[in-house]
Amino acid sequence: MDDRHHDGPGGYWDPLPTARRLLAEQPHLDQFGGLWADRNWRNVPGPFYGADTDSMQMGRHDAPFHIAYDDDHGPLDGREFVYRQPTGPGQTHDLLSGCFFGHGGFAMDGDDHWTVPAVREWWQERGRLREWAVGVSDRWSRARGEYREHYRDAAQGLRDYIAHLDHGLEEYLRGYLFQLAERRPPRADESLPVLAPPRRGTPVPPPAGPAVPAPSEGGTPVLAGYFVAVPESVRGPGLPRAERLTTASDCLIDRLPEDGCWFDTAPEALAACAPLRVPGNARLYALLVPAGHVAGFVADIRAAATYEPVLLARLDGAAGSDPGPGPEVAGGGRELGWEVLGYDYGMLHSWLCNDLHRDAVRDLGVDTDERGLLPGRDAAERVAAWANARDDTKPVTWFPAALVEWDDPIESRFVPVVPEAPQPAPRQPWWRRLG
Fold this sequence. Notes:
The chain is 31% helix and 14% strand. The protein is of the alpha+beta class. A six-stranded antiparallel β-sheet has the order 8-5-9-12-10-11. Strand 6 and strand 7 form a beta hairpin.
């Protein structure tokens, strides 16, 4: 699976010659029968697009960096579309493999239909697309039940689409405009056409957050907030083997309650969980962020325009290298270890859910414990700086953070509602039943 970009020297790489060669070598992949008239409006301009695909939502198994799902068939169901065009041979093969499961609903003749004015018009309407993707990804990220992992992945696809809209797609489309006008990729010394400026009312992409400071600038850890979470056993490709994985991110474990899971104090967090059905291994946690990394965290929260009153109240004003004493952590807890997090459109992501663990072990010599946590701050600082220097992760400001845990089980007053069994009617004497 290839998630790297391989744009040509002028900013555009034409995938069609590679696609035709791959289809000649592997004809079973040629399942392209979609019609332009049925094209999903969410497809990014380019040669590949989804039209009347099925709703089985299997394309992301092979092409998670290119295929996403809509919700046209219901709140948790929909068709497939292309949110990122391939920019290299490996990506082209991934996309062809993902399109195979669309049952003939994908197509690769976009170059025959897109025009320079049509691409510019699509770009001007991206605010509508971004608003849709933000809303649906938030809903899908909260799905529970048997298909929770499927919809978390579907939500991740839409968040990746949002990130591509904000960072990278404009440059790609400028190269694609040249390709459409000249019918060849641009050379490195040729200027690219510009996309028309957004119309009034179109949201402006949020600015990138500041770079994570060097470890020496980390400063005193600041209490960000309290939360309740349920550690889970995790074993999977790219993940450490952890029997009780513990993280502030709900990508890999559940936090309680499902809505509004950050709290200003420990008693508030415990009170919010009291009426819920709380698993026996749920525990109270606190998240601490080194002061020198708070600014990047806050910038990403504000850029996402999400509602985080607890985190912002705690962290605003604590962005200096050493802000002095802040709220103390409640007594009775113990520091578990350190992790690396990033804030992305309403969710905290862990470096573990970004497939970085294996590379970090290889490149940095770090490793995690039975909780999936790094042993100390120095290791977390190095992983955060290393992750921010990469170009294949989510567009977030990665930062180190410490977790504090309280051993006491969460008290719950939850009482399941048991419907009262229907009572039989009073039995009458036999002589009254004769009539």
